[in-house]
Write a structure and sequence with these properties.
- There is one protein chain.
- An eight-stranded mixed sheet has the order 1-2-7-3-8-20-9-19. It has a five-stranded mixed sheet with strand order 13-15-11-17-16.
- The chain is 35% helix and 21% strand.
- With 505 residues, it is of the alpha+beta class.
- The chain contains 16 helices and 21 strands.
- The protein is globular, with a radius of gyration of 25 Å.
């Protein structure tokens, strides 16, 4: 009798191995394991995860290693320039293809004083009506689940929430003895917020270990409509630091006002000359190579978008004029001033002429606008405005010779990537999404505005990549009070279950 039951169990398991689970079963499994998954996320969020602190990396790596080993994955710590990464792998019977998943585990630094809770690393459950958020007891989860409740903690959305959605889905399949439709590799990155500086070398030296047929990125926010989203590309990033110099030291504004130039005004004029009032970059060649024909616009603008609703959400009267829609704007490179510094403000303000003024710039890149080219274009434009460009602090001779002095430092971060919307990978994922949510209830976007360190995998391994978007658009990533909506995490479980049980062919 036991043998017969075991054989029946084998047939049941084999019947779903590598095949789509019925939508109703996916829903039931996601419901049954939801609270457990939320509690796993709550536990994971207690680990500080700033990538510049080795102890933070070690703590998160140990947590990930322990949890993947519990799911019968083989794990290996890979080093690149002394920085640790974790690779987990599991092969399944009858699986012919392999999918590589990318998980971002680190988070942005925190200023705990700006958070409306005890600690950014002690997750708090809240119910929000507009900006009014009230704490909800964790005990209420199993009694009165509300999909609009949110988990507040650093990395709740970016990107421990998506990571746990995948891990919890793998646990569901493991416990229910359901094999995914493909072999699985998972690479965990503990320095994504630092630009993943050691990842390119890691991929190059370990290409055999990373070999796969496709890559899925469990990172990124959904667009304003908050529908389950597949993102087929990401912009790259390059940063620049501009320091404009005045006198040797800060000067008394009463004694030297009208005589010693204030570098803030010079920097302001320079930055103002880079963009016109409509937001169009005035640096020659900045948009060169980007083609936006009517056919491409039609595909890009298939994503639902309510212009007035978006303006209302952002609290602005009019958008910039780069592209006719939000989706079109994401297909162009951008130029942004991400920070300014000169002297002191508010309670510490003082009557001085500052000795220098600093601007931090980021540029989001598309495949047609490589970082090195864009950086050189900015430098050439600055030189055309009469500036003498420095590589280090100005010497006495340089100060006495040149009226416009600027020091420029630059850094190339993640490179852009783009996968064809009609690719085999895109069609496979689309089938999984349609199976779980129904036709018209998910979004396929050509590109996100943010950046992801995926280009090394694409260029070295020669595989396509798509980002699976779970977090809510109003999640405050990188800022105080980052959060993840429970309904999004619930949908994330369903997305992962649908993908994992859809045979990739």
């Amino acid at each position: 009798m036991r043998i017969a039951l075991a054989f029946l169990l084998y047939l049941t398991v084999a019947s779903v191995s590598g095949q789509s689970l019925k939508k109703e079963r996916i829903d039931r499994l996601a419901d049954a394991y939801l609270v457990e998954g939320i509690n796993a996320l709550k536990d994971f969020l207690t680990l500080p995860n700033y990538g510049q602190i080795p102890d933070n990396i070690n703590g998160n790596l140990a947590w990930c290693e322990r949890n993947f080993q519990a799911l019968d994955f083989d794990t290996e710590v890979l080093l690149s320039n002394g920085v640790k990464h974790l690779l987990a792998e599991r092969k399944f019977k009858r699986a012919e293809r392999t999918v590589l998943f990318y998980l971002q585990i680190d988070g942005q630094p925190v200023d705990a004083s700006q958070w409306t809770q005890e600690s950014p690393y002690i997750a708090v459950l809240k119910e929000c009506r507009g900006n009014d958020c009230q704490v909800v007891s964790w005990n209420d989860l199993s009694r009165d689940f509300n999909p609009d409740w949110k988990i507040f903690a650093r990395s709740a959305s970016d990107s421990k929430g998506p990571a746990i959605a995948l891990i919890q889905a793998l646990k569901i399949l493991h416990e229910r003895r359901i094999d995914p439709g493909f072999n699985i590799k998972v690479i965990m990155d503990f320095q994504e917020e630092l630009g993943s500086p050691t990842l390119p070398a890691l991929v190059e030296t370990n290409r055999d270990k990373f070999s796969a047929d496709a890559m899925l990125i469990m990172d990124g926010t959904r667009p304003p409509g908050n529908l389950p989203t597949l993102m087929f590309g990401a912009r790259g990033i390059a940063t620049m630091k501009l320091t404009v110099y005045g006198a040797y030291k800060d000067l008394h504004s009463g004694q030297y006002g009208n005589y010693a130039p204030n570098p803030v005004f010079a920097l302001s004029r320079l930055l103002g000359s880079m963009k016109d009032e409509n937001g169009l970059v005035q640096i020659p060649g900045f948009y060169a190579g980007v083609a936006m024909n009517e056919s491409k616009k039609k595909v890009i603008n298939a994503v639902p978008e309510d212009r007035e609703q978006l303006l209302e959400i952002l609290g602005i009267a009019q958008p910039e004029s780069v592209g006719g829609t939000y989706q079109e704007a994401l297909q162009y490179p951008s130029l942004n001033v991400r920070g300014l510094r000169a002297a002191w403000v508010e309670d510490e303000v003082r009557t001085i002429i500052p000795a220098e003024a600093l601007a931090e710039i980021d540029m989001r890149l598309v495949p047609e606008t490589p970082a090195e080219r864009q950086i050189e274009l900015v430098k050439e434009f600055i030189a055309s405005q009469g500036y003498y460009i420095l590589k280090s602090e100005p010497t006495h001779k340089e100060r006495r010779t040149h009226t416009k002095l600027i020091k420029i430092a630059s850094r190339v971060g993640s490179k852009p990537f783009r996968t064809d919307l009609n690719s085999q990978l895109g069609n496979w994922l689309g089938s999984a999404m349609e199976h779980v949510f129904g036709k018209g209830n998910y979004i396929r976007m050509q590109s996100t505005g943010g950046s992801q360190p995926i280009a090394p995998f694409i260029s070295v391994l020669g595989i396509p990549a798509i980002s699976v978007r779970i977090p809510n658009p109003d999640n405050n990533i990188h800022a105080p009070d980052e959060n993840l909506r429970l309904g999004n995490f619930h949908e994330g479980l369903k997305m992962c279950l649908g993908i994992l049980t859809q045979k990739y062919e």
